[in-house]
Design brief:
binds iron/sulfur cluster, 419 residues, 11 helices, 8-stranded mixed sheet, single chain, 10 strands
Length: 419
């Protein structure tokens, strides 16, 4: 994708060199357009009613067949390549360690989140199974075929974790249960643990308990927006979407009670208009509750209601990425850090040599998410290039090398300590 300069000199891939940040006032989503009646609720796909046959590759100049969970799931391009269902090579990655599965229906997700490629307002433009999400296509595959492939060699599988992503749909709760059962009936969840990326809007506390009882290991809530005001603007009333901050917190707190310490967490997107202080306040709150935060760098997803807005400047992203790691894994507290008048981190609250060692370790700059089998602080969910192009990586899906770390230090404005 080419870079577009916006008014504050920051490009859509975040290549600002200055001390930039995405301010609330600059990050207003577009209003969703009205979808013609005949194109709502997946009508095009349901009227054509083409039977699905095997793997469906999106945007391949064929009519989208009628596919539904739990028989069908979608998966990231990286997961499809790792399973051998799609050809191709990823930049500097052999595989992904997380099998991300997404529930699928012709009606798609009934929410309208402003930053999301799956949002309902796209109905007129693109069938659900053809929509880009976190920068990539999501092929649709029969669930039975997914389980067949992994069950053939569980011990030798590249995957350290499987994750079921719910969407906002009336069948989402029961179909998540069916997909989880289909997995655990043939694959030991001790060998490849399962995470649930939940949709609190349709869930009850009883649903949370059921998923735990059926063998789910970690439960996460995609808060995405770091403050109630930003949540409402990007996922609630601001874009005719049904989500409510308080409902998300109700299910998040239920997950804490049901799944227990270190087994629940929340997704936060950085750069949608929150200050760095606000984002890190949320990170600290999650740690104090016993959970973790999983972070994403805002990227203007093509076709979304925020696709005209700038990606998060790299300096803002790196500061929050590093500070989040310190709070989540190095025992540093928000109160030890200092912030400037615009809420930007100005001091990380650690002696320079200690901070230096953590930067050099590089893990702080890797993709964050549920852990895999390497280390507690290394996410199985590596989402290659889900929040940036490979030319200007935000979340590293691999261990950053010395050249990467030099670039990261430049973005942070922290030179190498010589001594
Ligand atoms: S609920 Fe999730 S999948 Fe649906 S539009 Fe919002 S972010 Fe996208």
């Amino acid at each position: 994708m080419s870079c577009i300069k916006n008014t504050n000199g920051i490009t859509t891939d975040g290549t600002s060199d200055g001390l930039g940040f995405n301010a609330f006032s600059a990050m207003q989503p577009r209003a969703p357009a009205r979808t013609p009646q005949g194109l709502r609720n997946g009508r095009r796909v349901k009227d054509a009613d083409l039977p699905a046959a095997g793997v469906y590759l999106p945007n391949n100049n064929v009519l989208t067949p009628h596919m539904r969970s739990p028989e069908y799931v979608q998966m990231s391009t990286a997961a499809a390549m790792t399973l051998g269902l799609m050809p191709g090579k990823m930049h500097r990655c052999d595989c992904t360690r997380c099998l991300n599965l997404l529930l699928t229906y012709p009606e798609g997700c009934r929410a309208n989140c402003a930053y999301c490629g799956l949002a309902r307002h796209r109905e007129a433009e693109r069938d659900y199974a053809d929509r880009n999400f976190i920068r990539v296509d999501w092929p649709a595959v029969p669930m039975e075929q997914v389980v067949d492939i992994v069950a053939r060699d569980v011990a030798g599988s590249a995957f350290h974790r499987m994750c079921i992503s719910m969407i906002t749909h009336p069948r989402s709760d029961q179909d998540t249960v069916s997909v989880l059962r289909a997995w655990t009936s043939r694959i030991d969840p001790e060998a490849i643990p399962v995470s649930i990326l939940s949709n609190p809007t349709t869930m009850t506390v009883e649903d949370v308990r059921r998923l735990k009882d059926l063998g789910a290991d970690i439960f996460t809530v995609a808060l995405d927006a770091a403050t109630p005001g930003l949540f409402d603007r990007t996922r609630g009333k601001g874009v005719q979407s049904p989500h409510k901050w308080d409902k998300y917190w109700e299910i998040l707190l239920a997950a804490r009670d049901v799944f227990g310490p270190q087994k629940f967490g929340a997704h936060i997107i950085i750069g949608m208009g929150e200050t760095e202080y606000e984002a890190l306040q949320l990170v600290q709150r999650l740690v104090d509750l016993g959970g973790h935060s999983h972070m994403f760098c805002f990227f203007p997803e093509q076709g979304s209601l925020m696709d005209h807005l700038p990606a998060t400047p790299r300096d803002q992203w790196r500061r929050v990425q590093l500070a989040r790691y310190l709070i989540d894994y190095a025992g540093v507290r928000l109160g030890q850090m200092t912030f400037d008048e615009q809420g930007r981190v100005s001091d990380y609250g650690l002696p320079a040599a200690e901070l230096d060692a953590i930067i050099n370790d590089g893990v702080a700059f890797r993709t964050s998410g549920c852990p895999g089998k390497f280390r507690e602080d290394v996410s199985a969910c590596d989402r290659p290039y889900g929040d940036s192009p490979p030319s200007n990586i935000a979340s590293f899906p691999f261990q950053p090398n010395r050249t990467d770390l030099r670039k990261i230090r430049r973005q942070l404005g922290i030179p190498v300590v010589r001594g």
